[in-house]
Amino acid sequence: MTKVPESPAQRAPLVLTMGDPAGIGGEIALMAWHRARAELPPFVLLDDPTRLERLAKRIGLDIPIAAIARCEDAVETFANALPVLKLSRRVTGEPGQPAARDATLVVEAIDRAVALVQKGSALAIVTNPVHKSALYDAGFPDPGHTEYLARLAGLTKAPIMMLAIHGLRVVPVTIHMALSEAIAALNADRIVHAARVTAAALQTDFGVVRPRLAIAGLNPHAGEEGHLGREEIEIIHPAIEQLERDGIAVTGPLAADTMFHKRARTKYDAAICMYHDQALIPLKTLDFDRGVNVTLGLPFVRTSPDHGTAFDIAGTGTASPESLIAALVMADHMVRNRAKAAGALVA
After folding, report:
1. What are residue 223's phi and psi, to 5 degrees?
2. Residue 4 — pLDDT band, cuts 50, 70, 90?
3. Where would you tag: which of 127, 132, 232, 325 has the fewest CB atoms within 10 A of its CB?
4. Which residues pair with 162 in a beta bridge?
5. What are the tens digits of pLDDT across the range 114-170?
6. Is 336 left (phi over 0), alpha (psi -120 to 50) or beta?
7. In this structure, is the dihedral angle defined by the CA atoms of residues 335, 336, 337 and 340, taken in order, positive or negative?
8. Is 53 helix (H, G, I), strand (E, B) or coil?
């Protein structure tokens, strides 16, 4: 029997994608390395080294950029320079000024990141923010990052989006829909799928031995026994009953206005919410700068900072790298937990 290394980040780096080069992805990567490299797991950035050198000078940072030949070389390089794997050509856009031609480079970075993690050259993927409309104009075939990664991974079931900060994890069952559409789309199968994937990921990726899930109601006061809406009775209760039959520890449906205060949050490991804002408002109110977007259900670890491209401040050096730093740290922790969950001993 061979012991799995306790510190997999010593074997290979994380891989960080460029994101839209006109956004803040490049500068928060530079700032993350500059501010926190001693505490961060080694990572390699898929980008254009020349544009990163220009960007570092523009925001007043003296950062050595090391163009490396192999992903694995990032581990030795990381302490002294920011390791970068070159893309196939140079970026043409400038901060705050997206260039349509760069959209193919954005996709190339995602494709290469997946290929690297699938062959074991990288441990996990951290993605910088993309500008979806630019990708659509370039023929991007999927609604967003998550769906594209799921397709590259060959998934047959949809992955699940989790947003996480210290002390709170939330999972929206419906995501980017108008509220009326989200309510119409809500059904027991969606809730059960989101909860099952979340419970499994809490065990394997977050080291929670017996996950506790809180299921939010949809209506005010969780419907007041049908007086303020029947979705809790007709949709959410049947989902909870199925999850209980599955052996998953669940409570609910809970009134959403009372399930996010400090004492309530100690009673569960993740909150399953019925729509986007029900999940994201409490999380972003509690810690706007350090939220992490995690994709659950993929065969590899993927995290992302919980913010957009911020074209309006790109190139100014005023963007906060805290969310990216949190995403890198969380990806590293998830990799370690997966290794433990797979078994400390393997044949």
Report:
1. 90, -10
2. very low
3. 132
4. 294
5. 999 999 999 999 999 999 888 887 778 887 788 889 999 999 888 999 999 999 999
6. alpha
7. positive
8. helix
